C-alpha cells in the first residue's frame, strides 16, 4: 500500500463521520471525501511535512473565520501523529487576554466596537504566545492554554492552568492557527477606531518572525464568514515559497 493511500485512510473515517455538505453532482459522500483528501488535506500535509526542521517546526495556519482552519489543524495534528511526530496545536483564541485584562482594554478604548470584546489584534496575550514558541523551539514542554468562551455570559475568560494541555518536549511541530496570522499593519495609521487595532497588529511582527512557515487559506467569497461555521475546504493556500491553489473541485497546483 502506498504511503499516500495509508495517510488517506487515516483521515477517511474522520471525514465520513463529520458533517460535510456534499455538492449535488457527487454521487456519494464517500466520493466527495476522497476528493477532499486527495486534493486538499494530503497536499497540505505533505508540504508541511517537507518543512520539518530541528528542533521544532513552528507552523502558522491562517484563514478567515468559518474557513476550516480548526478542522485543518486537527487533521494535520492527526497525520503528524500517525507518522510518529508530536504536534502541539493551539489557536490564537487560546491566548486571548483574561477577562479582567479584556475589560481594561475596552475601558481604555471607549466607544470602539473593535476592542469592546475579544477577537481583534489588541485582545491577545502575545507575550504568552511568544513564550510558547520559545519553549517549543528550545525543546521544552509546551503548556498550551485554553480559553472558555462561555464565561462571563459569553465575554470569555482563560481557563485555569489545571485545564491547560501539556505536550511533553521536545515537540516536532508547534501548529498555531488564527484568522489574522500573517496580516501586516498599514504603514500609515488609519483614522478613528481602526488606529489602535492597526497599532496592535504591529505587535504581531515578532510572532510572524518566529514562524518557520505559514499556510494561508484564501476563500473565494468573504461572505462565507457569515455563512459557514467550521468546515469549508475550498480556497487558495499560499506559502512563503509557492502557492497551492484549490478551487472546489479543481486539483491543487504548485506554481
UniProtKB/TrEMBL annotation:
The keyword Signal applies. Keywords: Signal. Residues 1-17 form the signal peptide. It comes from the Eukaryota. This is Phosphoribulokinase/uridine kinase domain-containing protein. It comes from Aphanomyces astaci (Crayfish plague agent). The lineage of its organism: Eukaryota, Sar, Stramenopiles, Oomycota, Saprolegniomycetes.
